[in-house]
Amino acid sequence: MLTYKKGDLVKAAKNGEVDYLLHGANCFSTMGSGIAASIRKTFPQAYEADKCHHGTPIQRIGDFSEAKIGNLTVVNLYCQYDYGIDYRRFEYGSFKYALSLFCNENMLNGKTIGLPKIGCGLAGAKWDLVEAILVQTVVAGNWIVYEL
Q1: Domain 2-147 class in CATH
Q2: pTM for the complete prediction?
Q3: Where are the domains of the chain?
Q4: Span 56-65, pLDDT tens digits
């Protein structure tokens, strides 16, 4: 269900190698560090979708926003309320809920979904727990975890 690939996810998305680019986002529309900063620079439409989300920061947690850019859809999964590196900001339950919403609202059969090791950098998540949520939650599609 999950495959792993060495490489730059943002570059892969730009080159048309994935249909969906998923990443973890905080609820304050910063996209200022980690892979989010690269996504913001390369796909400013994703940042606009983040800023235009209908909810307040507390209403965003466990939700997602998306930007369609040609054949690519960039998905901001709101799985951390705020940002910082002083403690784990990633919320496993919010990730599972946002991922479930995304999977339920999109037809993923035949699609390639690229994602980093969501939350396992600056947000402080443990990959074995994130991976377990992915395995339990995703139902269709070709899911590729990109590692630099």
Answers
A1: alpha beta
A2: 0.96
A3: 2-147
A4: 999 999 999 9
